[in-house]
Amino acid sequence: MQKARIYVANWKMNMHLDSGLQFANDCKALMNDNENTEKQGSPFSQNGAKKHIILCPTFPAIYPIAQLLQNVPISIGAQNCSEHEIGAYTGEVSAQSLSEIGCSYCIIGHSERRKYFHETNEVIARKVVKLFASTINPIICIGETAQDHKDNKTLEVLEHQLNPIIKAINEAEQFPETVIFAYEPVWAIGTGKTPNNETLHATFNWLAAHLTRNIKNIKVIYLLYGGSVDEHTALEMVKVQNIDGFLIGGASLDFQKFKNIVSLA
Ligand code: PEP
Questions:
Q1: pLDDT 10s per residue in the chain (265 long)?
Q2: Is the minimum distance from the CB of 143 to ligand 1 under 6 angstroms?
Q3: Measuring CA to CA, which residue among 189, 202, 186 is closest to residue 243?
Q4: What is the dotted CATH code of the domain comprising 5-264?
Q5: Is-above-0.90 flag for pTM?
Q6: Which residue among 11, 107, 229 is best mutated to probe the pocket of ligand 1, counting the most ligand atoms within 8 A of its Cβ?
Q7: What is the dihedral of CA 196, 253, 145, 239, to 10 degrees?
């Protein structure tokens, strides 16, 4: 099976409803214009490689954007969900609610959630299970800090972050056909710094081997890179084996920049 290349726009707490809708409308026009656009439900393709866009707006913008993009082969994701199914958890949003308003993906374990909201690997593992049960594909973020990177501890940290998550995936009663991991070095997010291709090559080879060896029930694993992706860095990184796409923060706030990444890389 040829994998699609995936482009996730993580808008974080940016973009108000009007700018989010405008961006989604621009994406819709891009899909309509693209002469390679395939039938409903397929990502558009270019030079034989299918491309799949996933927009991740803020919670309140999810439903209107999902409505706007009905019948358009662009997916909608959330940026977080609750580890609980239902109940007295003021301010939380369940995976089931996200599914009902048109989400088919959800970013979890982003380093900003780990840092500011103290999310642990165990909490993230529970979220994975809740998402699976609501037929939402998690986009699971992992990555080492600048200090870990300096200490040459990247793979050790990744393995530690992945352990409870892999266990939860293997024990889940319900699970999807594919799962997405996003490797995001914390020191690369929003800084303009990126690992070189040699380092990325080693990390992604390790990730692909580790996940394939240890995840028993899901055969198709996508690996994304995130951290200061722009049209220049993406064009270089796309050459790295086992990078199946990108998780894009800052550059996904500007439609032209996002479009350039999607069409060039
Ligand atoms: C992110 O926060 O997930 C991210 C990748 O941000 P940026 O592209 O701005 O580095």
A1: 689 999 999 999 999 999 999 999 999 998 877 644 444 443 455 555 689 999 999 999 999 999 999 999 999 999 999 999 999 999 999 999 999 999 999 999 999 999 999 999 999 999 999 999 999 999 999 999 999 999 999 999 999 999 999 999 999 999 999 999 999 999 999 999 999 999 999 999 999 999 999 999 998 999 999 999 999 999 999 999 999 999 999 999 999 999 999 988 8
A2: no
A3: 202
A4: 3.20.20.70
A5: yes
A6: 229
A7: -20
